[in-house]
Amino acid sequence: MAVTIKDVAKVANVTPSTVSRVISNSPRISEKTKRKVRQAMEELGYLPNFKARSLANRSTQTIGLVMPNSTDKVFQNPFFPEVIRGISKIAHSMEYALHISTGETEEEIYEGLVRMVQSGRVDGVILLYSRINDNVMSFLEEKKFPYTIIGKPYLNSDGISHVDNDNFSAAKEVTKYLLKLGHKRIGFVAGSLNLMVTLERKRGYESALLDSDITINNDYIVHEEFLREGGQEAISELLSLKEPPTSLVVADDLMAFGMLNTLDEMGLRVPDDISIISFNNLLLSEVSRPPLTSVDINIYNLGLQSAKCLIEKIKQPDEPAKRIIIPYKVIERNSCKKLS
Amino acid sequence: MAVTIKDVAKVANVTPSTVSRVISNSPRISEKTKRKVRQAMEELGYLPNFKARSLANRSTQTIGLVMPNSTDKVFQNPFFPEVIRGISKIAHSMEYALHISTGETEEEIYEGLVRMVQSGRVDGVILLYSRINDNVMSFLEEKKFPYTIIGKPYLNSDGISHVDNDNFSAAKEVTKYLLKLGHKRIGFVAGSLNLMVTLERKRGYESALLDSDITINNDYIVHEEFLREGGQEAISELLSLKEPPTSLVVADDLMAFGMLNTLDEMGLRVPDDISIISFNNLLLSEVSRPPLTSVDINIYNLGLQSAKCLIEKIKQPDEPAKRIIIPYKVIERNSCKKLS
DNA sequence: TTGTATGCGTTATCAA
DNA sequence: TTGATAACGCATACAA
């Protein structure tokens, strides 16, 4: 059996309660006993038992992470390691641990979350995605359980603490960028329409076009998941139009990357035949051919802030919801070209 | 306060102990009371309190995951999401939760692990990497704490439960494959020499050469991390030799992918000017230009088996250590060419 | 088949 | 400034 608070008490010649007070560094204990007790702890290699502690404490010092469907392609996106890196940085410094929950279906994810919350495994939760009609969110909301969301909440975005980029503006900006380069036929390629990111970026794209009095052509908008087979068709279809787009706004580097391949197979060169601009600025966008012009959304910081925000929420549940917008930055590389 | 076992007991008109027995589905409780109790649980939406349960139980039903240095480039490798997907599949089905621990330095990782183990947060641990002289492993070993390792242990590999590929043979096989295509000047590109994977693959590479009476040329072996700036030089150096290699064994798709870019910049075409074969068979290798011939190491299964193995270990600590070798498979694509 | 009593390792309340 | 004692919510040995 591991060493307990009683053992320490015995060695230090005090009662367990005193040891407990030393652990929490209570000010009403003499420096002398503190030293004595600490030495005993050192000597025995004592570490407080987490289970007992959180039982008495009603706090677990752990944060739950809800990931999207693990069989989904987005799961493979380096976005997640990076955002977790940010979260973990803060968590670590605030002595919180990380508890991860995922599943193969939305049902599984939901049940996983419920168990994790109901059984008191975590003090708060970070949703690593935002989608519409998410029952995970409804549950948290109803339970009034502390949580933060990375992305823009579908509803009631003022009442829910979240960390996000201004994806609308970002998409609008890059679309304008293409317009300025002389492109008029601009396509939009993205993933699931259930995700708020997709919706926001699409809105931005459309808004830029409207501002330039260009009518939105639904043939130019593609929503396939197409890193694999399926999507290639959607893309080749897009490019086989009588008037194919001369440039594309792609909602993710990973997708953009898949496109490069598809385009290559079709004999189209980037940026000579077609320009591409994308999002996230993953390592990938740097080492691809050509290097991609991409919007850096500062993923690491997204994670950092979401953790900070959640921990504050846990400690002060009654504070009003916070919205934190992480600035983005367009990184110009060589995937866009002026239309002559 | 949430609903407890007492509430259920009251509603069902039994004592808490009876409820407890129903929870663990004890055979010595009548079907009738079981029904009665279960209905009460249902009614109240009761879920056992995790902290109390694991305190009384001395088990947490959670698995600790130790990741490598989060600032390291390998962290970005899609290997991790995929292996976690496998782990999580089993964990979920066996009612285990996942606890993740990482850090920015080896020191942090070590301390994180110690706390997680000592404070009793987890029942067992999976190391998601294997490197030489790992104090994390020494600690686990000394504590006789249940753990499994993904990769080959540096020492005492018979005494430590692990799940691995036969990386030696795999590397040997692909090197032979290149030899058979007529290549004699074959380079080897890999990451850190602290990682067992790297060492094993290198051994395989060398063994194949020796079998063909080709002397090992250290100029042909590169160990840089070179997805970013630094490494490109190492590569161009390699290719600027008087007698540059005509083909490369690259220890990871991500690296191979970075190479494609570097090579392109140098005006070298794959596979016409130089052949490349790599490992892991990530999505990436499929959508790169050209698609990469790569060794599928079945990452998902690696995760699956490691979790299975650990849970068995947790339940039967005295069983001898297991070694599980996951078969690999060479996936031929278009990055290798016969030397004419 | 069920109930009673006790313990799991802490923290917190109340005394001293 | 410290000690005794009762929670925290559940599991289990022992009784009945």
The gist of it:
By secondary structure, the first copy, chain A, is α/β, with parallel strands linked by helices. Chain A has helices at residues 5-12, 16-23, 31-44, 50-57, 79-93, 106-118, 135-143, 167-180, 196-211, 229-239, 253-265, 283-287, 299-315, and strands at 62-66, 97-101, 124-127, 147-150, 162-165, 186-189, 221-222, 247-250, 275-279, 293-296, 323-326, 329-331. Chains A and B meet through helix 4, helix 5, strand 2, helix 6 and helix 11 of A and helix 4, helix 5, strand 2, helix 6 and helix 11 of B.
Relevant terms:
340 residues, alpha/beta, 6-stranded parallel β-sheet, elongated, DNA-binding
Mean pLDDT of chain A: 93
Number of helices of chain A: 13
What is the first-to-last residue Cα distance of chain A? 77 Å
| Content of β-strand of chain A | 5-15%
**Helical proportion of chain A?**
40-55%
Describe the 3D structure.
2 copies of one chain form a homodimer. Chain A is elongated, with a radius of gyration of 25 Å. Chain A has helices at 5-12, 16-23, 31-44, 50-57, 79-93, 106-118, 135-143, 167-180, 196-211, 229-239, 253-265, 283-287, 299-315, and strands at 62-66, 97-101, 124-127, 147-150, 162-165, 186-189, 221-222, 247-250, 275-279, 293-296, 323-326, 329-331. Chain A has a 6-stranded parallel sheet with strand order 2-1-3-4-5-11, sandwiched between helices. The first copy, chain A, has 13 helices and 12 strands. By secondary structure, chain A is an alpha/beta fold. Strand 2 (97-101) of chain A pairs antiparallel with strand 2 of chain B, so a sheet runs across the interface. Chain B binds a DNA duplex (16 and 16 nucleotides) through helix 2 and helix 4. Chains A, B: Keywords: DNA-binding, Transcription, Transcription regulation. Chains A, B: This is LacI family DNA-binding transcriptional regulator. Chains A, B: InterPro entries: HTH_LacI (IPR000843), LacI/GalR-like_sensor (IPR046335), Lambda_DNA-bd_dom_sf (IPR010982), Peripla_BP_I (IPR028082). Chains A, B: GO terms for molecular function: DNA binding. Chains A, B: Residues 3-57 form the HTH lacI-type domain.
